[in-house]
Design brief:
This protein is mainly beta and 232 residues long. It has a single domain (3-227), classed as Penicillin V Acylase, Chain A, CATH 3.60.60. Helix content is 8%, strand content 43%. The protein has helices spanning 93-96, 145-149, 161-165, 167-171; strands at 3-8, 16-25, 30-37, 40-45, 53-56, 61-67, 102-108, 111-117, 122-126, 130-135, 138-139, 142-143, 178-179, 188-191, 194-207, 210-216, 226-227. A hairpin with a 4-residue loop joins strand 5 (53-56) and strand 6 (61-67). The longest helix is centred in the middle third of the chain and has 5 residues, at 145-149.
Length: 232
């Protein structure tokens, strides 16, 4: 995961509204979101077995992983960061230091916490209510203007993605970040001869009416969104 856009309002009907984009080598295999782990729903990385985003409808909560920047120097075999969204939150700091750099966002109706490891120190940050942008470089180092103007959706389970999310679908159709790490929201480029880009996106709402999780494997203006079935 390389981008998380978050609206946190603990007094709202939907305290958590989260939009996320996963950037990865496009040839890396993965499985669509499902209950690949008991009680946890998310896409599964077929190579390492972990995930970039996990929804726990029973808690309820959503946990999203972003790679940290800059990457840590090579140092032997480090465990896959994809295990972190599935771990007890937050893992012990000594455990976190064994991974490559990351940001781990955990959102619940009453609290949003970000745990970060940059190779030098582990930090734990509680986010204030409001809109937030988390990217590889950190928390709110960038701004994304559409997030500040997008209307509040009504993402009740069972509605079509368009009915449920409204303008939030357009939020993930494209656009540009401003700030310390300017770049497009959706990327596609060649890295060492391999295509790297925005291969999927997710929308997650947590509130009094329940938990809603939508997913697309082709983010952009022509994205085909669908609701991920969750238990009632």
């Amino acid at each position: 995961m390389c981008t998380v856009l978050l609206r946190f309002d603990p007094d709202a009907t939907w305290p958590i509204l989260l939009a996320a984009v996963r950037d990865e080598y496009l040839a890396r295999p993965w499985e669509p979101p499902a209950e690949h782990w008991p009680g946890r729903f998310g896409g599964r990385d077929s190579t390492a077995g972990g995930t970039w985003l996990a929804v726990d409808p029973a808690r309820p909560s959503v946990t999203a992983l972003l790679n940290g920047y800059p990457p840590l120097p090579p140092a032997g075999d480090r465990p896959t960061r994809g295990s972190l969204p599935l771990a007890h939150f937050p893992p012990e700091d000594d455990v976190l230091r064994s991974f490559d750099a990351f940001h781990l966002v955990r959102a619940e109706p009453t609290e949003v916490a970000v745990t970060s490891w940059d190779g030098a120190r582990v930090t734990h940050t509680l986010l204030e209510p409001g809109n937030h942008v988390i990217v590889n470089q950190g928390i709110d180092v960038n701004a994304f203007a559409p997030l500040d103007t997008v209307s509040t959706p009504n993402p009740k389970p069972g509605l079509s993605s368009r009915e449920a999310w409204g303008d939030w679908l357009a939020l993930l159709a494209g656009g540009e970040f401003t700030g310390a790490a300017e770049r497009p929201l959706l990327i596609r480029k060649e890295v060492a001869g391999l295509l790297y880009g925005s291969g999927s996106a997710a929308l997650v709402a947590i509130g009094e009416p329940g938990v809603r999780y939508d997913f697309t494997a082709n983010p952009g203006p022509e994205a085909a969104w669908s609701e991920v079935p969750l238990p009632n």
